[in-house]
Structures are given as structure tokens and as C-alpha cells.
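INPUT
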Amino acid sequence: MLGQIAYALPFLAQGFALTLWVSLLVVVLSLIAGVILGVGLVYGPAPLRWVVRIFSDTIRGIPILVLIFFVYYGLPAVGVHLQSFWAAVLALTLFKTAQVVEYLRGAVASIPKGQSEAAMAIGLTFRQRLAYVIFPQAFRRFLPPWINGVTDAVKGSALVSLLGITDLMQAINQVIGRTYEAMPLYILGALLYFAVNYALSLASRRLERRFAFIRE
Amino acid sequence: MGYTLNFNLIWRHFDKLSGGLLLSLELAVISIAIGIVIGLVLAVWYVSAGRVVRGVIAAYVEFIRNVPLILLVYLVFYGLPTVVDIAYSAQTSFVATLALYSGAYLVEVFRSGLEAVPRGQIDAGKAIGLTPWQRLIHVRLPTMMRITLPALSNTFISLFKDTSVASVISVPELTYGAQWINFNTFRIVEVYLVVTAMYLVTGYVLLFALRLIERWYRTAR
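OUTPUT
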């Protein structure tokens, strides 16, 4: 039993690497898209705010699995052909972007109004207020939940196994298909996911404590 | 491009979706009911227990929260019967998984709720001579419930969405119905549009209803 599992380890390691790679791509892309849309939601003109609000509420209102199937099966139907890997990354990025938008909105909203009023009083322009007053403070509010939310990207990435992508989840299922050692392999997989996500949530908690000095 | 929407086939097979939605709701309700029991018992135990018990409960919570739900579903459905001599249907297996899953999230919710009960209330309970058990039932739990109700509603709604994962072990809930129509009629865009709307409307109706209950419960003193 152990021999068979040891034999499969390089294959599992490849799957694990793919899981991390998908998660990293999703996290980076959604951070960029989410910050842009989030700023649009907080400071943009009304039509833009509505569009972002509807986008975010829709994405957050449906299961990630439905979103993944919609993107994966739906895009080719309307003539957009993406490799399954990129369809999966796109779907997970959409899901994660909606989260980042909400973290950003929450972080900016948590900065007391007096801060931007004071900045206005000393004559800072809109951009200066954002760059020197609001964002440096909002960043400390944004970071802990965002890092904690990275675990959602890692956990969500396990769903791409359903599209035939050989991530850690799919690699485990394939090895089980050959060896019938279901329980040890699922536990091994669970421990790997746990290691990554637990490290992330610890980091989030530490940062939260470090940034706890900001008061209302 | 040039895709023409045609919903006829979706309506013809709509029973797959309506029945699926009902099953999704059923799975979520049963799971959270069991999850609430797990969460309450463990949270009450946690706040009064020693280091070892706390460690075990924390390990359960952290393990569940940091592992993908799909893996837990596979583990319980395909993994567990290979080591323990039990047999169950996919549906039972999924409910058990989702109950354990929601239990882990609810331990946290209830624990922080119990710790948020004002000290003065517990002291007042002592002052009028309530036993520790009476203080728990008549003072701490009701107050904790008021504090945690919003978080409980949110957990329920996210659990309702999580039931979509049951489709991977062929439980015929809403996402499974969507896939069935996807593969059998190829009206792909249509079916996912309809299913998206069904999840959204159900989710927001639930949210609205739960917020009403919260408001009613908050004012009832």
C-alpha cells in the first residue's frame, strides 16, 4: 500500500503544483480586477456603481460550481474557445474578483469620514486624498481578510478537477482509480490542502493583530 | 457568435430543475439542523472545557475549514466505506458531510456569540439564584442566539449554495439537473441562465425572510 502511494508521489506533486499555480493566477488576476472594480464601486459614477454592484451580487449569489460550468460549457457555445485550464482560471477569477470588490468596499467604508474631511480641509486633491490618506489606512483593513480569502481560491480550485484538469484533487482521484487506496490518499490530499490554507489563515490572523492599532 | 436563445427544451425538462431546487433546499435545511446541534454542543463544551478538549474541537474546526468541500464529500462517500463497514446512499452521505462541515463553521459562530454575552447578565443570573444549567438555558443561550442570528442566516445561505457540490456524487439537486439538461439538450447558455436566476432568487428570498425573522426576534424581549 505504502509502496503504491510512494510510487504515485511525483504525480501527486505535479497535481499539487498545478493547484498552487491555478490559485496563484486567480489570486493575482482577481486582485487587479477587484481593486479596479472596487474603486469603481466606491468612487465611480452611478451607472458604473450599478454595474459593479450587480456583477458582485450575482457572482456571490450563485455556487462557484455553477459559475465554473457556465463558463466552461457556455463560452464554446457562443463561439469563444478557451483551453479548459483558462476557462477554469477565468471562472475562479470572476468569483474571487467579486470577493475582492467587497473587501475593498468594506475597507474603504471603515475609514472614518473625518479622515477625508481633514484631508479636504488641508487642500488635498481627490487623488492625493486617496493616495496619502485613505488607501494607506484602508490597506491595513483590506489585507487580513484578503489573505484569509486566498484560502477560498485554493479550496475553489479543487472544483476544476471536474473539468478534467489534473490538479491535486484530480490527481488523487486518478491514483485512487489505479490503487483503490481511497482513504489514505484522500487524507493525504486533505493534509496538503490543510497545510497551505492553515498557513494562510495564520498569516491573516497575525496581520490582523499587527494592524489592530487603527482605531475607529 | 450567432447563438440563438431557445428556452423550449429547458421548460420541457423544468421538473429536473424545480425538483432539484427543492432537494437543494432540503439538503441545506437538514444539514444545518444537524450542524446547529453539533455547533451548539461543541461551542458550549469548548467555553467551559480544559486544554485537551479545546484542542480537539479546534482541530476539527480548523481541519474542516481548510479543506475543500468537494474533497470532504469524496472522502465520506468513497473513502469512509472502505475502512468502516457502513453503507449509505449518496444523499445520506452528502447530508452527513455538509452537517459536519456546517457544524465546524457554527462552532466558531456560537463560540464567539457565547463569549459576547455581557458579563453583567450572567452575574444577574447568579444573583437571582439560577444554577449554572439554568443560566445556560435561560440567560446565555437566548442572548447568544440574538447575537449570532445574522451569522447563522449567512451560514445557511452559503450552505444552500454549497449543496451544488452534491452533484459530483450524482445527488439530483439543482446543479445536477442543470448538468443533465446541459448534456442531454445542449441548450447550455439557456440552462445556466435559468439556474443562475433560480439560485439568485432563492438566495435573496431566503435572505429577506431570515432578515425579517432576525428583526422580529430582536424586538421580542
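end of record. Chain A has a mean pLDDT of 92.
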